Amino acid sequence: MQEAFRQFARQVKPGGALILCADNAEAMSLRDYASPGVDVVTYGLGNSAVTPDWTATDIADTPEGQTFTAVHRGERFGEFTTPLAGRHMVQNALGAIAACRVLGLTAEEIRPALATYGGVRRRFERVGEVDGILLMDDYAHHPTEIEALAKAARARFPGRRLVAMFQPHTYARTRYLLDGFKRCFSGFDRLFILETYAAREAIADGMTGAQLAAELHDPAPGYAATFEEAADMVAAELRPGDVFFTVGAGDVDAVGPMVLQRLAPGGASQTPGSQSEARPEGGL
User: Fold for domain 125-263?
Assistant: First the structure.
């Protein structure tokens, strides 16, 4: 994977631009592969020793999303809004702003597009709401993503109880990421584990969802072997004011609508929060 990105960097022609996230050491290492005459542009939130060309100040959470000021080499470029949750989405927005600016767009041209971009399907997606209980879905499936999801949810829904149903993705991944899984759920108030989405592998290759549940203590989870059991457990747990997330890269998103049916028989309708039907395959 590293070599693929190095090849990508080498293929940028003189006169072009290579835009790199200064907060990521692997991304910044690609500077060494840029050809002479390529403009290397950096962006980030200042989470490294490198001072990026583009950064954000005055980041604030609102009920509708996040606002921030984009700063280019010390000069204010403009104020922007994104409906997406999480500081990593402000970081992503900076990368988009940097790319747009390289292409010659102004802040006034960038601002409305960024403000209306709702993200892809299964990323902080709204499933529905009933009796003051909000149901959400997210594709997060490894510890870094899950921790970022919890932080984003806490910022977007301050003071509300956060409940998550996580479906591990493959037995092998569950085992080799176990140390991360033991820590990444601490931002949730209540946790449930659904049995593993196997993806055609043998159980002997790793550990099951039930085994994962036995290893977790912060918070200690409930375990469900089937979708029906999961929906029943969650519906019985939820109360007005809660925000419930289905979390994982498998088919756990089927649980949300089932919970809605149990909370409001014959009633609640789904209200997807994004325009894209593309299924994400990784990354934040």
Answer: Protein-Tyrosine Phosphatase; Chain A (3.90.190)
Non-local CB neighbours of 239 within 8 Å, separated by 6+ positions: 133, 161
pLDDT of residue 264: 84
Question: For the packed helices 255-263 and 227-237, what is the interaxial angle rounded to 10 degrees?
Answer: 50
**Encoded tokens for 38:** 């390529």
Reported as a single tens digit per residue, the pLDDT across 119-136 is 778 888 889 999 999 999
The structural architecture, per CATH, of the domain 2-116 is 3-Layer(aba) Sandwich (3.40)
Q: How far is the C-alpha of 174 from the C-alpha of 180, rounded, in Å?
A: 10
Task: Tell me the C-alpha distance between 30 and 27, whole Å.
Answer: 6
DSSP for 127-147, please give it: EEEETTEEEEEE---SHHHHH
**CA quadruple 63, 65, 67, 72: dihedral, nearest 10:** 170
